[in-house]
Amino acid sequence: MKKTVNVGGVVLGGGKIAVQSMTTEKTSDVERSVAQILRLREAGCDIVRVAVLDEADARAIAKVREQAGIPVVADIHFSPRLAVLSVEAGADKIRINPGNIGGEQGIALVADCLKAHHIPVRVGANTGSIEANFLREYGRSAQALVGSALENVAALERHGVYDIVVSVKASSVPLTVEAYELLAKRTEYPLHVGVTEAGTKEMGVIKSSIGIGALLLKGIGDTIRVSLTADPVEEVYAARNILRACGLETEYVEVVSCPTCGRCQYDSMGLAARVNERVRGVKKKLKIAVMGCVVNGPGEAKDCDLGIAGGREYCLILQKGKENERVAVGDAERAFMEKLEELLQ
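Structure (tokenized):
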């Protein structure tokens, strides 16, 4: 039976997929950290992770968490003391690698703190942190990633910790998918899914969409992070779009638009971009169509709440699949946006 883990009120493993991201600010700079977290929350982030590099970062978690409005996860490596300080400062979860947290004594120290405060932990492996014995036996493979991750899980279980989230990430999409498929067969703990080192925004979104999407469509994954070398807000937008494309999130405004062609005689491409920007973040189940021409546009917009299709002299505005009015091209965008605003109320 699937285990569940409660991260500051967000339940992982209960069916709903939680979106995560990570701040890029120094955690001890509370003002800048909180400002970034609020932007992430506004974009749709459910859980945020912060880096803990020193004692100042660990102690700052208390003030950051007070203002964040979403659960805060502390990311710590090499120092069991900083892990303990982070938990005591109010972190809702920590992310550690038992292999570099100070040996068995360090693991025991962190485990005792986690149990005392009832705080969950994420462990796992990526292709840069596979335990040496698995790397020697299997090389950089799905078997090595999963074996290494489960060895880390076992290290915590030996000390009575069972509120665990597991990940196995690679920068290779096929390897990531293979590893998570294998991991899902071998553990009931919630899975944190993502493609690591995915790259800058353009390629990173593509790799993450393919890898994360493929797993979610198979029912694998309980929380996701899109890793981009970009503003972390872009990670959240991408993650939400992945959930929507997979049919796992329905309370949003879907914008459909055609690729345009030589038949298009008005600025449908620009209008589609402006409509998409306007509805981003709106939590309302609507479908809006911005179509390039009147050849296929009316038919393709038939199941939409609001649609527009253009011609040389006028545009058709459609509501619930039926023509509502014909508007001169020069007035079409204004008329269309007015009707959109009415729907968004």
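Residues 142-157 form the longest helix (16 residues). Residues 32 and 313 are 50 Å apart (CA to CA).
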